[in-house]
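Researcher: Here's a chain I'd like modeled. Treat it as a single chain, no partners, no ligands.
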Amino acid sequence: MLYGLPVVAVLVVLAWRLIVDGPARLAIDLFAPTLSQTALILIFLLGLWRLIAMADAFTIAGGRRAWRSPRPAALFAVLAMIVVLVHGVIGFYTWSFYDAGASIFVSSNPDNLEVPSATSSDITGELSATPVATPKTASSRINVLLTGIDSSEGRNHALNDTLIVVSVDPVTKAATMISFPRDIARFPLWDGRTFTGKINSLMTHASLHPKEFPDGPINTLVKELGYLLGVPIHYYAAINLDGFVQMVDLAGGVTIDNPQLINDPSYGGWGPGHPLGFYLTPGKHHLDGQNALAYVRSRKTAGDNDFNRARRQQQVLLALERKMADPAMVARVPSLLRAAKNTIRTSFPSERLGEMLDLGSAIEDGSIVQRVLGPPYAIHPPTSTTGGVYILKLDLAKLAQLSITLFGSDSRYYKATAGGPLPSASPSP
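Model: Modeled as a single isolated chain. Structure tokens:
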């Protein structure tokens, strides 16, 4: 009983956590290094404790002679192997969370920030930054930038072709997803300057011109999107698109409902040796990683555009979230975490993950407000005025009104007008 009490106590605590919080919350909490380290030590000590208890009981029951008897010794060896195997498997899962969490959740060192190179297959160690702002209280709105970084083979620079701001209100349990099309250009910076390039190149430009952008690449992007949207962005989560393919494949693919025909004969994002083109009929489809990537990247279908592509990106993110929540994913957790370790970086604090899981569980997919900053919030000026380059220019007055509609008094535009009507304005030159 003396040997058994510690093991029983741990099992009771674990069972209580599983009943009250559920397995998903317990797994999320393991991303916190302090908890996963403590769990690893406890798993090792409990395994050792059980082996000592078994050896003691074996000696008491059979004496020293029992160790020299083939059958009892063989039985002990089998039972000991079972204990080692069980604790080894549990320890492996726990180590997977610790190892992934140590890489995914970046350190607060803004000087250690580089944009992924063209030959980089992952983003290990390349993104780390302090939050530009943090929520004032636990009940304050949380704004996170989700960005996909395209640094695939053949590029000499990295591009943020996916820019989605997710905003969650912990009080009302409301969520909003806002996509910035990559072709937005000639927009005002928070310091009064104007950036003439496209928004998907801002992070790379900031990396190449550190004197002009002392905040660093990722903080520059985070600060600018928050400035345009009218609410501070507190954290970011970045994923390399090559890693996106691997994550979807490991999850067993995603199921989407394609709203319209996609026939893009020029799509070439498959990698070397693969024929050009991507074709997908309307309706429900189960997509593997490469096809899911094509679904969120293709935009050359007649009548298609970057706004539809942004909507598809939001759709696939929600589909992947639903797939990850499937209990059948448990067996694939170590593989998923290894892939995530090499492809995902976030400045979101790991200790708040459980809270975000609870919030996410309380929000229905159908209640998430989804917006893409295409017309009327951004318009395409005649190419004769842009040197033949396709760009989008923001209508700042309409964007300000959207910000007030979505975020109310949290929006800086609301504060600037004291809640009154906004003056009419056209896109800045």
